[in-house]
């Protein structure tokens, strides 16, 4: 008989998607899957008929402010408010499971997002093994792990030019890339990250959506410094069917537009589900794109521009200017877009999912990181893997125009494309039989079955 896994995603696109993808991967290995979720940003169960879904019985979090500027406070609040209803639900699921008929699979473990730190104490009290999914890459997890050291050395209170300094402990990161320094409330973030670390270390294993060949030295450091079993089994999106875990409706009409464009000519522009820019930056982005004269597909989701919950107001004259070469939509089928032969570059905020999707589809990046792990991801993209470029200073249309041309038209862009093609090849190999992620997934399955 198979075993059942209880999986608890964090209700944000960048966390929800990899958890649902991991669920699909583990389902293909014979596990039955139950997804526990909040009402806020709840998954569409119709897209996953093979799973069972358990909403946490409350109606909280419907209208909360979970914008980029308040995300840390929101996460701290979620970890407090969910304790009681989650405990009740878990206890109900486990007691139904105990009295279940013979053909009900026993629950093997709970798999939660690492940011659901409150669940570790609960899992312990139910004697239920807990494994965490950390949806960032290993490198930014390790930068969290160095926080005590960084605080002690004064990096977290750095000022002025100190921001540009590279702390030797975190090479190639600079002080300004440390994830905690780019949030509005560093103390609240410090508390959140400390709990994430403590409870991840108390778990029975941690899963990463990355691959060994991309982060070999981070993996070695993790194994040396942290005693929790680690499973690096990504890229997830290359191991699952196209079933959607998107929380917003994806506009697939852009694919027929892409079909009419020349190979590698289009810059895809999207800043993920939560990053936000102010109005002045938005105007510079729009005119930088227009002035570059390159074809582009731009996904502008509601909320991208601070102060505008609905569609953002494009500058006057912009749509006329780009009518022959640009398409603006609300939300893209991103992986399908990145796989399209017309795409030659991705202007991204460097959320980890977008970064990994771009690398493993072989697409060069133009980086505009906004907060949290995005700064570290962008640094790795530009300085270590050298598969993208970036404007370090405040963005303006002139520099954007220049950067887009460098990426899409010049020798520098072609060299970047060659390097990212090599990484794509490694991503393809690691999930093939005998590859590093393939083997790590087998180890994960054996680990779960040993509980
Ligand atoms: C957040 C954080 O910002 C990120 O730094 C962290 O690593 C994960 O959580 P988000 O900002 O949404 O995520 O970015 P990202 O991690 O890139 O995830 C976005 C997901 O939405 C990707 O899987 C992407 O394919 C999808 N997407 C994005 C779409 O389907 N359509 C779009 O138009 C844009």
Automatic annotation (TrEMBL):
Keywords of this entry: Transferase
InterPro entries from the UniProt entry: UDP_glucos_trans
Keyword Transferase: yes
Keyword Magnesium part of the UniProt annotation: no
CDD domains according to UniProt: GT1_Gtf-like
Molecular-function annotations in GO: quercetin 3-O-glucosyltransferase activity; quercetin 7-O-glucosyltransferase activity
Position of the signal peptide: none
Pfam families in the record: UDPGT
UniProt record similarity statement: Belongs to the UDP-glycosyltransferase family.
PANTHER family: GLUCOSYL/GLUCURONOSYL TRANSFERASES (PTHR11926), UDP-GLYCOSYLTRANSFERASE 76B1-LIKE (PTHR11926:SF1464)
Listed name of the protein: UDP-glucosyl trnasferase 2
Organism annotation: Sesuvium portulacastrum (Shoreline sea purslane)
Phylogenetic lineage: Eukaryota, Viridiplantae, Streptophyta, Embryophyta, Tracheophyta
């Amino acid at each position: 008989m198979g075993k059942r896994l209880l999986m608890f995603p964090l209700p944000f696109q960048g966390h929800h998607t990899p958890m649902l993808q991991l669920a699909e991967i583990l389902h293909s290995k014979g596990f039955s899957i139950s997804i526990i979720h909040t009402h806020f940003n709840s998954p569409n169960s119709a897209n996953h008929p093979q799973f069972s879904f358990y909403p946490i019985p409350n109606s909280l979090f419907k209208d909360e402010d979970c914008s980029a500027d308040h995300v840390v406070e929101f996460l701290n609040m979620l970890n407090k408010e969910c304790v009681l209803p989650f405990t009740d639900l878990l206890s109900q699921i486990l007691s139904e499971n105990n009295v279940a008929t013979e053909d009900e699979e026993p629950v093997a473990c709970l798999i939660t997002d690492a940011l659901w730190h409150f669940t570790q104490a609960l899992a312990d009290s139910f004697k239920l093994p807990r494994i965490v999914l950390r949806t960032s890459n290993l490198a930014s997890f390790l930068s969290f792990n160095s926080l005590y050291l960084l605080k002690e050395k004064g990096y977290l209170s750095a000022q002025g030019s100190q921001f540009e300094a590279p702390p030797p402990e975190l090479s190639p990161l600079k002080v300004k890339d440390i994830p905690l320094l780019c949030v509005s409330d560093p103390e609240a973030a410090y508390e959140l990250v400390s709990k994430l670390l403590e409870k991840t270390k108390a778990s029975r294993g941690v899963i990463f959506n990355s691959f060994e060949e991309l982060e070999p030295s981070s993996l070695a450091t993790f194994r040396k410094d942290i005693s929790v079993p680690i499973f690096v089994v990504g890229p997830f999106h290359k191991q699952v069917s196209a079933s959607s875990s998107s929380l917003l409706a994806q506009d697939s009409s852009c694919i027929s537009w892409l079909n009419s464009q020349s190979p590698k000519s289009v810059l895809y522009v999207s800043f993920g589900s939560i990053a936000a820019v102010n109005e002045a930056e938005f105007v510079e982005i729009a005119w930088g794109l227009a002035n570059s004269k390159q074809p582009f597909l731009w996904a502008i989701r509601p909320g991208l521009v601070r102060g505008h919950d609905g569609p953002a107001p494009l500058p006057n004259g912009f749509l006329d200017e780009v009518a022959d070469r640009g398409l603006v939509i609300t939300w893209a089928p991103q992986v399908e877009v990145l796989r399209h032969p017309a795409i030659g570059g991705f202007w991204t905020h460097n959320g980890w999912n977008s970064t990994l999707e771009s690398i493993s589809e072989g697409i060069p990046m133009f980086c505009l990181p906004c907060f949290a792990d995005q700064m570290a991801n962008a640094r790795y993209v530009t300085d270590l893997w050298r598969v993208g470029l970036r404007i370090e200073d405040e963005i303006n249309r002139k520099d954007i125009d220049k950067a887009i041309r460098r990426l899409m038209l010049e020798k520098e862009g072609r060299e970047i494309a060659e390097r990212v093609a090599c990484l794509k090849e490694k991503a393809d190999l690691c999930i093939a039989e005998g590859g590093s992620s393939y083997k790590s997934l087998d180890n994960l399955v054996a680990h779960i079955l040993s509980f």
